[in-house]
Amino acid sequence: MKSVPPVPKPDHVPEALVVDFDFIELPGAEDDIQAGYQAYQRGCPDIFWTPQNGGHWVATRAEDIVFMQRNTDVFSNRMVTLPPFPEGTPPSIPLEIDPPRHAQYRRPLMQFLTPGAVKHLEDGVRKVAIDQIEALLPQGGCEFIEDFAKVLPIHVFLDAVDLPREDASMLLPIAEKSVRARSIEDRIEAHREMSGYLLGWVRKRRAEPGDDLLSQIVTIDVDGEMISEDEALSYATLVLFGGLDTVAGMIGLIGKFLAEHPDKCKELVENLDDAKFLKNAIEELIRRHGIANTARVLTQDYDYKGVHFKKGDHILPPNLLAGVDDRVIDDPLTVDFNRKKPVHASFGNGAHACPGAGLARREIAVFLEEWLRRIPEFRVKPGTKPVLETGQVNGIIKLELVWP
After folding, report:
1. What residue segments make up the domains of the chain, in order of their start?
2. Which DSSP string do the residues of 350-389 spell out, in sequence order?
């Protein structure tokens, strides 16, 4: 059942550009999310309008997606969710703040997640991965999402913000509800629940800051003054959601791919010690398995490639479609670890490019290195089927694996 009924077509939208596209209930995505999206990319106008999820435009080609991600003057981040939250909802900081002000909020994230800092975090990432894999190995199988894909990033992230690891089991369902709930009300409730959990921690770190990431983001100065408690809470909530869910989704989809493609898994196993090969292979896996969907809102009337946008229009430029665009990538649904340049927009572009991209790549690398050295052969458990789900963050919610 849809939580939001289709809306009427606005007068400025030509009938020829209307497509019934619902990114929450996408045909074909139950088997392959990216292929389900690509069917619309190949069979529809490059830019079309859908009456679903509040009514919004969709950009399907890499050139347009990258342009819109970079051009924040016209395609604003002020409302990134679909259906949009009610008018007057405070912005999620810093995601829904546009440049140049955005840079002041983003600064502590960039400082904490520099390449050097990410390298410093690697030992913790690796220890969590090894401990979890060693515990699973003798069982001969696991439910990969709950038993590994979610465990690695949440433990690493809770360590980075210096919050108790034992809170992971309580926080993960809230993060799931935030990005995959079908109703606006449920998504708002998830934000309230996360804010309720964080409020005490935010107040404590603002009073007695440490050197952890949470302390840094809740005490930043903007325009010469420390941000308000409400802003700090919004910032902390968004960062915690980002750290809990997105990396887990990508690791889950990569695990599914390797379980279903033993030849590719074997190729990785044979090249784990080749740093250059592994780096390119990870980029190719990220290209093929993009997951995030952040919408934009038009700041003005704007004509683009024959399409007339009106101020206030919402548009979805799905990150993952840039990685499966056959105009820029040959045979894009095929994973080729020797592809010379895996082009994608999985972490966004421009001012709002994901500041945690380096950490995400490192977590994926550690997963592949430590898992494949211990479990080089694995497959989907016979009689089961992976459960995939689309939404603001696409992902996989169940994946039963077995190994010898």
Report:
1. 80-295+331-402
2. GGGS-TTHHHHHHHHHHHHHHHHHH----EEPTT---EEE
Q: Is the pTM of this model over 0.70?
A: yes
Selecting from 3.40.430.10, 3.40.50.2300, 1.10.630.10, 1.10.10.10, what CATH number does the domain 80-295+331-402 have? 1.10.630.10
**83 contacts 54 by C-beta, under 8 angstroms:** yes
Sheet holding 400-402, edge to edge: 141-143, 400-402, 379-380
pLDDT in tens, 225-254: 999 999 999 999 888 887 777 889 999 999
Structure tokens at 222: 């903007």
Angle at 201 between CA 198 and CA 203, to 5 degrees: 110
Find out whether 374 and 117 touch, Cβ atoms under 8 Å. Answer: no
- What six digits make up the tokens of 53? 């999820």
Amino acid (1-letter code) at residue 194: M
Q: pLDDT digit string (tens) for 324-355?
A: 999 999 999 999 999 998 989 999 999 999 99
Lookup result for tokens 């799905």: 318
Give whole-number Cα distances, 151 to 32, 203, 381, 396, in Å: 24, 27, 20, 14
Task: State how far the Cα of 254 lies from the Cα of 26, in Å rounded to an integer.
Answer: 20
Q: Which residue has the tokens 């995400």?
A: 360
